[in-house]
TrEMBL record:
It comes from Chryseobacterium lathyri. This is CRP-like cAMP-binding protein. Transmembrane segments: none annotated. It comes from the Bacteria. CDD domains: CAP_ED. Residues 18-117 form the Cyclic nucleotide-binding domain. Residues 131-198 form the HTH crp-type domain. InterPro entries: cNMP-bd_dom, cNMP-bd_dom_sf, Env_Response_Regulators, HTH_CRP, RmlC-like_jellyroll, WH-like_DNA-bd_sf, WH_DNA-bd_sf. Keywords: DNA-binding, Transcription, Transcription regulation.
Length: 198
């Protein structure tokens, strides 16, 4: 969801820059700001009990960071780190709530974003539940293809590294590398200059 920058600024939002690998928030922190990515990308991640890192999502410019939690009293259930150098536009929670109350369209767009987020989590839950690694990887690639509006039969460059794929679906990176190679041999995808095209 993207709210017009000028509208956010007129309600008191401020720009904040983060260098790559700097944390934006940690699991357990209290959500206090609506945060919209202006440039760069942010990774949402958490750790399983045995220490394995799990990527919850990777967000780019135009997306907001877990805005749904501003409507609850729950803390962040994950960490957010700048994947690249990035700029966020931050608006405090009370100002966002005032904006939502005064502008029906903003509230509707937040509702649409929450629906998209739920669709993502339902999709990921199904993908992670798959038993076969090839089904997990294919499911994730299909999801990203649909998310990017790519029609069946058309090829697109997957915007994820093998490590990110592994972190998102609970596999070891070595398994992802091996399965992607097998998928290439079966003409399910192509690899060009280490990039995956699906």
């Amino acid at each position: 969801m993207k709210i017009d920058e000028n509208l956010l600024l007129s309600h008191g939002a401020v720009y904040e820059d983060y260098q790559a690998k700097n944390h934006i928030f940690f699991a357990g922190d209290t959500p206090k700001y609506y945060m919209q990515i202006i440039k760069g990308s942010v990774e949402l991640y958490d750790y399983l009990d045995y220490g394995k890192e799990v990527t919850v999502g990777i967000l780019s410019a135009g997306n907001s960071l877990v805005a749904s939690l501003l409507f609850t009293d729950y803390p962040y259930p994950m960490n957010a780190i700048a994947k690249t150098d990035c700029t966020l536009l931050k608006l405090d929670k009370m100002s966002l709530l005032t904006l939502v109350k005064s502008d029906y369209n903003i509230g509707l767009r937040i509702f649409e974003r929450l629906s998209s987020d739920l669709f993502y989590y339902y999709s990921m839950q199904r993908i992670i539940a798959e038993k076969q690694p090839v089904s997990k990887i294919k499911g994730l690639l299909d999801y990203y293809k649909e998310l990017n509006g790519i029609k069946l039969g058309n090829v697109f460059q997957v915007p994820l590294t093998r490590q990110e794929i592994a972190n998102m679906i609970g596999l070891r990176v070595e398994t992802v590398v091996r399965i992607v190679k097998k998928m290439e041999q079966k003409h399910m995808l192509e690899i060009k200059e280490r990039k995956i095209f699906y």
